[in-house]
Automatic annotation (TrEMBL), chain A:
Top-level taxon of origin: Bacteria
Annotated family: Belongs to the HypE family.
Domain PurM-like N-terminal: 43-154
Residue ranges annotated for the PurM-like C-terminal domain, each copy included: 168-311
Cited InterPro entries: HypE, PurM-like_C_dom, PurM-like_C_sf, PurM-like_N, PurM-like_N_sf
Pfam families from the UniProt entry: AIRS, AIRS_C
Name of the protein in its database record: Hydrogenase expression/formation protein HypE
From TrEMBL, chain B:
Keyword Metal-binding: yes
Listed InterPro entries: Hyd_form_HypD, HypD_1, HypD_2_sf
The entry's keywords: Iron, Metal-binding
Name the record gives this protein: Hydrogenase formation protein HypD
A Pfam family this chain is assigned to: HypD
Family statement: Belongs to the HypD family.
Amino acid sequence: MAEPATPATPRIQLAHGGGGTLMQQLIDAELRRLYADPDQVLHDAARLSLPHGRLAFTTDSYVVQPLEFEGGDIGTLAVTGTANDLAMAGARPLVLSLGLILEEGLELALLRRIVASLGEASRRCGVTIVTGDTKVVERGKGDGAFLNTSGIGLLQVDEPIDPLAIAPGDQLLVSGDLGRHGVAILAARHGLDLQPPLATDCMPLWPAVEALLAAGVRLHCLRDLTRGGLASALQELAAPGGLELLVEEERIPVAEPVRRTCELLGFDPLHLANEGRFLAVVPEADRQRALEVLAPAGGAWIGQVAAAGHTAGRPRGRVLLRTPFGSERVLVPLSGELLPRIC
Amino acid sequence: MSAPLAATAEVAAVRELAAELAAITTRPWTLMEVCGGQTHAIVRWGLDQLLPPGLRLIHGPGCPVCVTPAATIDAARALARRPEVILCSYGDMLRVPGAAADGGPGDLLGVRAEGGDVRLLTSPLEALALARRHPDRQVVFLAVGFETTAPATALLVRQAMAAGAANLSLLAAHVRVPPAMAAILAAEGNQVQGFLAAGHVCAVMGTTELEDLADRQRVPVVVSGFEPLDLMRGLVACVRQLERGEARVANAYGRVVRQQGNPEARGLLESVFEPVDRPWRGFGVIPGGGLGLRAPFRHLEARARFPGLPGGPEEGADPGAEAGAEGVCISGRILQGRARPMDCPAFGTTCTPEHPLGAPMVSSEGACAAYHRYGRRG
């Protein structure tokens, strides 16, 4: 590169990803603090000493726009989202990798804020970042920053948590009110001045899962309610086993500001993304115990899997929603993209 | 329309009205809700399931995107292909297929993919800003909508005149609702016995035009809103009239609609536009069914500036082409209330919101889109 570059340059340059001095300075000045063992940054691979047991492994990429929104940023999502995917498998999140793809011209101050969020979210999720990689792409070939995280967790359940484990008569619960993340992103993207501002619901899910397990709740299935919201999640659970899910719309918790914003913009809260909410499917005998764990944080019972025999001769693999007025409709996942790239 | 989860007080009120409706209905009746926003709310909340047996709802043509003739889309496509033109309209209009067999998906986005300059607006006044930013280009606004959006277009016309913008014109495709209601009643085999009129149209225009319709056609017309409670109130008021043998205009949306409408918006509309005969997709020409520019503004009509566009008055109307334009798609009959979305062999199979064959699947107010979105598949 012809331009002279110093660590004080306020924007990311191509050379920051070039493997040379500038890249080393970026790592030393901005990224090293993220790592549990800073010396590991120099090695090609992290050496892990993990507790003995069965592991869960997952990966996810984050391309949210805008990069910052009320209550968080892409860094918050990248750590929390992957840790939550592990939690949904019944695994305690342990370690993460972090891949950064930065666009030439990204403000260094913004990168610093994202890195701070990565650190803060790691602490909240109880995970450590053990390995990583940084690349820079030419201006116009990225969208500020793309992040990828992969995670390893220690499984805390013996029976697999899986849509195929769902049984007729099982009960459906959500861990909190829906749609806050979707609205926070919408507000940031469209410059909506919500008063008071509505923050993302992004939060670690493992503590709630751990509390359910500690209470002796048998978890047949868990699903975080990210892209596509509750509507897509329910459909994804109904399809594999050809089950019919019966949901009471009146019981689905939605905060008043989310309701109002949806009314204004013509969205359905059941389609909005969440980053700190999940759906739990439990046997009927465990419903009350599960509710006692989830209710204090706003969780609620929302419906059940149709009992065996109930669905004879009816279409299978569908979600039936009973409206507050007592009428019924089939809940379908959103067609097309409601909100492109929100997680 | 929006779909917030209903509040508890509203739920109780809706249930009470449903019980009242069951109590007062002694015979089968067929009502039409005119507006697509009302159709969406009815399907979203399953309100039709709350009605007594024999009380039937037919979905009306109240979706401006849906009734815009295919020839108008083709005219817009022809304009968008011209290198000097920036063609702009509302989002849904860009995805509605035209009729021309010119290859490609047949919509404005298809022309954009070929290199045409097609832009999405959220307000008509953005067209004037575009014209100012691009003095060397011709900006054409494909102006669609009912009496609700026509005042905003009228404002654009007035501001364009005041600014002397020589590079801005309109492909005027605004339509008027009351003549379409009259056309539905006049059609052979009509089943509609009462209307739920579109509350937002009446908020602008008032109820005078509808009073003429109710008197002449002996049909109850109840101005209704778009929330479950508004719609149930409208149904109760309409059935009450039918059961008593009455036929007049009633306002079940009094919190929004005044008898005289919104004089300011209406005055603006009427100063710029006048009623003209206009083809509606699925209907053919409806006398007085459109709004055309009045003489002092007529030079702003794109058809005057770019002669020879498809669908011009010199071509005459071809209702047959309108009805059969989409092949297997039966949107013409759906718009007239003669068929339901699931009667169409393409519904949910070859025709989906991602790959719409007809306008009612494109538009956020279209009946097919409502049925698809809310899981009515059989």
